[in-house]
Amino acid sequence: MTKIIEKIRASAEKRQFFYSFEFFPPKTDAGVENLLGRLGRMAALEPIFVDVTWGAAGATAPLSMRIADETQKRAGVVAMLHLTCAGLTTERALEILHEAKTRGIQNLLVLRGEPPKGSARDCWVGSFQYAIELIRLIRREFGDTFGIAVAGHPEGHSDSSSQEQELIYLKQKVDAGADFVMTQFFYDVSIFLEYVSKCREAGIHCPIIPGIMPIQNYNSFLRMTTFCGTRVPPAVIDSLGPIKTDDEAVKHFGVELATEMCQQLLDAGTPGLHFYTLNLERSVRQILENLSSRIGTMSRKELPWRQAIIGARTNEVVRPINWANRPKSYLARTELWDEFPNGRWGDLRSPAFGELTDTHFADFPVTSKENRKAMWGESPQSPAEIYDTFANYVEGKIPYLPWCETSLQAETLTIQPILAQLNRHGFLTINSQPKVNGALSTDRMFGWGGPNGRVYQKAYVECFCSPELLPYLLNICQHRDQIGVLAVNRQGQTESIRITGTTALTWGVFPNREIIQPTIFDPDAFMVWSEEAFQIWLRLWASLYDDDSISCELLHNIYNSYFLVGVVDNDYIDGNLWSLFEDTMIASRGPCLS
Amino acid sequence: MTKIIEKIRASAEKRQFFYSFEFFPPKTDAGVENLLGRLGRMAALEPIFVDVTWGAAGATAPLSMRIADETQKRAGVVAMLHLTCAGLTTERALEILHEAKTRGIQNLLVLRGEPPKGSARDCWVGSFQYAIELIRLIRREFGDTFGIAVAGHPEGHSDSSSQEQELIYLKQKVDAGADFVMTQFFYDVSIFLEYVSKCREAGIHCPIIPGIMPIQNYNSFLRMTTFCGTRVPPAVIDSLGPIKTDDEAVKHFGVELATEMCQQLLDAGTPGLHFYTLNLERSVRQILENLSSRIGTMSRKELPWRQAIIGARTNEVVRPINWANRPKSYLARTELWDEFPNGRWGDLRSPAFGELTDTHFADFPVTSKENRKAMWGESPQSPAEIYDTFANYVEGKIPYLPWCETSLQAETLTIQPILAQLNRHGFLTINSQPKVNGALSTDRMFGWGGPNGRVYQKAYVECFCSPELLPYLLNICQHRDQIGVLAVNRQGQTESIRITGTTALTWGVFPNREIIQPTIFDPDAFMVWSEEAFQIWLRLWASLYDDDSISCELLHNIYNSYFLVGVVDNDYIDGNLWSLFEDTMIASRGPCLS
Asked: Where are the alpha helices (DSSP H) in B212-347?
């Protein structure tokens, strides 16, 4: 289901409000990288789509295409690409449409657009005078390949003689094949609601999605509302007056105002909201937080990890847990596979499983050495300092670890104190999940997969630990018959307790679906992952320090001697993996028993 | 895992006693058919293997081969085939071994055997003087393709000069490649235990399985013990004396004696028991029942239904629930498939899904019309009489229904009273299972899949009901949002509530395994099954009566007007499908609300 109109209908069936985000292509390469990171984070808010602007007369076309592509492939969110008539020839339009189709971009916002700056109206070039002509071309040449949205102008359009005339044009566009309407932003909700009524009277029955642009800055707000001829209610102007030079206060007001507008829109029966983000994250995040009681606190996740939107990978439904905090590496290493038999990777031991290369370590979210040193230590001198860095991550004091390029999962917060204690003791956790015994699939923390289901998890911890500490852990685990342990060091020396095959770690039960089992512990995958995990000590951390420094030596020692340990608690009903680690910490303060 | 020695080792690891059954090829075709039925029933006792004798000098070879084959294919139990040297040429031996290999028969009991009756010792023909020569041929020509067992004689063998000599021969056979020893039957446990000690002293360390032959009849007991030179303890002779003409009393004594012997053997550390059944069922079943506290009340089922032992079907791990009580028909209709992608049938709508033919209705366990009339009514005159027949089945008063060719599942007993009531009301149930929320996988009633797991079921009922009754059910179901219903009549008219896809009905969670989901409700499979289910009214039931009889007309009317209904309760935690049916029964006594 990658056409937006289908997703809108599915939301309506679930009686769930939806929302979408608009971004524009940044001007610099660094800006693009930052935006892609932001897209990844904002994907976790579960917008039903992200749309990407096209620049005046397609000025940013190749970059827009790339961002839409990455949105679908990396962030796992359906993308909608803008397409404007201005300056577009039929030949070029077909070229773009073929490229979009090839890339699996299946949604377009078809606009008339403005001519490039400085062009006189009579310099208008291109094969399409109006959006409807482009819509007709798309439907004629591509049938129903693409979902098509069109723009609505609640406050009129500068080129239209009258709103009546404009609604006639809009109806023609819908009749020609547009699926839904997205409106220009506004600050007076009543204007939008009247516009919807008039559309309905004019025979336009498709969804009409209001555009919301949170005020970010007083000057840009004035500029844009003036340029677009947007009516601003006097109360808004009055409120902004006294704070207009205080950017934070303006932003805060913008969030409050947008929240109130959204409340009114939802009250009036609007099915969803479209946010003009201006490539910013905080305001939209805050507005959605404010609305959480309205738009529902239900989990909107389809799976615990983000499924791909296009390609063979859309069939993927099972992943080993190990790459959970390094999904890009997993995607890259399995990139060449064109089949996901049984909804999963083929054979991890096969030659098709990507070898480790420099690129697997190059694209860490924090690129500068200085910033990474600031997070992980300017010059760590002892294991205790290293242990502290891991604990700091668990406590949310630093955003990343070399092994964790996503920020802490919400569910990890439930086990934060014990995790921090473990790390300071020398169990350096890089992946974990608590047990879950039949939580509702809509549970905000643990839920996924939609309503009316139940979800389950086996508790899992993955950590590095010293060869001195490992025997205490193994000894305690030996006596707990529901525990499985697999440990390996860089040299490939392994220790294993009760691990004889692949174990389901996360699964869900739903009406009208077979059992879904998105996360597993696979001993073979663990072994493949361990090579990558050990490399990370050197490539992402030790490399920050001079070759002959104590810090560098310290990290090399850890790399050379520590074990990577995976611990599975099969008792997801009554088990307590944390008490096991507590017992281990107590035991390791006394003499070793094993 | 189809080699018996591996299964013996697995039992030892699970600390589970095992048992096996021996059968011989019957003399008549009817006898063969009865034996195959018996094998199917006795398979439910979960023997680790069944062995099939070979007849003197291979007299019954082709039939033995066929029975071993059917044991594996239909009953889903590993078979061991006897193979005797007597009269066997190398060429014939290779032929038999190739055939066994082709059929997937992977276990052999290699014996010297006796020459055919009437042959003088010097008329012995064949290429092999001793079993060890045949063992060597098997290992030389087939490597470790076959598991090999050899016979042990705790009371000596008529041909051996001394027990010492015999143990030397036995050790040679084990060294030549035999995996384990099965002994001749005995009635003095101490003789067996001494024999095991002597074997160990002689360096024979493989498993030695005692043969138990429950006394079935006084005369045959005397004849066999005399023929084999078996020592019978005086107490046994004393006990049999007064009851020797009372067959039932002898049988009963045989069960008690064998139970006591088995207790002593298990006490002494014997890992398992082999029963010489003489093709009889009751005594062995009773002995195992008596021993249940010793051999464990744990479920030994691998899956809720019996998996095939050989062929592509060994990969099958998912079945639609509908054929649960007619497994042979399911096997036949999917017989031509050579692939079970994702562990299941391919596409039920594909041309490869077997069409219904006469043979699908021909092999009902009760072949004679008279016997079927006795079960299902000599001449039913009203729907109420038909309803009563269904209730009688649920109450265990008759062993089969036309749709149920296996006797009632143990778990169905837990819902017997409500089921009987439903049937008398006109909901003619042909398949059902109660909900199970995380029962131990070793639970005697619901468990499967081995130790340390948890199993789950969604409650399911499949029934016929009249077009008058159906609306009441649909109306109640409409208001229970966790219920899914699919109903169809012979004409293909369907009613559906919340059925939009395939639902897992039975699943299990285990250490070191992915989620196992052996039973599903698949709407497409339900539709395919419904055709068969409607045909059964005519082919197996109406056909018992004259064409112009009231009974025949009655059954045709039901066939033509009733609906087949499947009801799934997705709430396997708190749901109560039975209260739903109770509400329906109450509602249908008042006016219809829908």
From this structure: 218-228, 234-240, 247-267, 282-290, 292-295, 327-333
CB spacing of B568 vs A513 below 8 angstroms: no
**Polymer length in residues for chain B:** 594
pLDDT digits (tens, 9 = 90+) for B227-238: 888 999 999 999
The verdict on A277 and A395 lying in the same domain is no
Segments of B155-202 assigned E as strands: 180-185
- CA-wise closest residue to A390 among A541, A521, A550, A505: A541
Q: Which residue of A has its CA nearest to B519?
A: A514
The pTM assigned to this predicted structure is 0.80
**pLDDT the model gives residue A337:** 62
A507 closest CB neighbour out of B512, B515, B573: B515
Together in a domain, B375 and B277: no
A423 pLDDT exceeds 80? Answer: yes
The whole-number pLDDT of residue B585 equals: 93
- Cβ count within 10 A of residue B192: 26
A48-94 pLDDT, tens digit per residue, is 999 999 877 777 888 999 999 988 887 889 999 999 988 889 999 99
A290 and A321 assigned to the same domain: no
Distance CA A136, CA A128 (A): 10
Contact B511 A498 (CB under 8 A): yes
SS3 call for A593? coil
d(CA B295, CA B298): 9
Count Cβ atoms below 10 Å from residue B336 Cβ, excluding itself: 10
Looking at the fold, whether A289 and A332 belong to one and the same domain comes out as no
Residue B28 C-alpha, separation from nearest chain A C-alpha, in angstroms: 46
| Domain contains B541 | yes
Q: Alpha helix locations (H) across A44-78? A: 61-73
Nearby residues of B489 by Cβ (< 8 Å), 6 or more positions away? B467, B561, B562, B563, B564
| Of B316, B313, B367, B239, the residue nearest B516 (C-alpha) | B316
What is the count of structural domains for chain B? Answer: 2
* Residues of A catalogued as catalytic: 22
**Residues B389/B377, Cβ–Cβ less than 8 Å:** yes
Measured N-to-C along each axis, helices A550-561 and A383-394 cross at an angle, to the nearest 10 degrees, of 80
Asked if residue A506 belongs to a domain, the reply is: no
What ipTM did this prediction achieve? 0.78
Please name the residue ranges forming H helices in A106-246. 131-142, 163-176, 189-201, 218-228, 234-240
Domain that holds residue B73: 4-215+271-284
Q: How confident is the model at residue B116 (pLDDT cuts 50, 70, 90)?
A: low
- Among A167-171, A337-341, A439-443, A535-539, the least confident range: A337-341
Helix, strand, coil fractions of chain A, as percent rounded to 5: 45, 15, 40
- Domain-embedded: residue B165: yes
Rama region for A132: left / alpha / beta (φ>0; ψ in -120 to 50; rest): alpha
Both B48 and B181 in a single domain? Answer: yes
CATH of the domain at B102: 3.20.20.220
Of the ranges A26-40, A304-318, B278-292, the best mean pLDDT one: B278-292
**DSSP code at position A404:** B
Q: Which residues touch B36 (CB under 8 Å, ≥6 apart)?
A: B67, B70, B74, B75
Determine the 3-state secondary structure of A527 from DSSP.
helix
In a shared domain, residues A349 and A212: no
Report yes or no on B173 lying in a domain.
Answer: yes
Q: Residues B334, B279: one domain?
A: no
Is B339 among the catalytic positions? no
pLDDT of residue B520: 94
Distance, CA of A50 to CA of A38 (rounded, Å): 12
Torsion sign, CA atoms A226, A227, A231, A232: negative
C-alpha to C-alpha distance for A338 and A313, rounded to whole angstroms: 8
Residue A288 and residue A322 in one domain:
no
Chain B hits for A509, Cβ within 8 Å: 456, 504, 507, 572
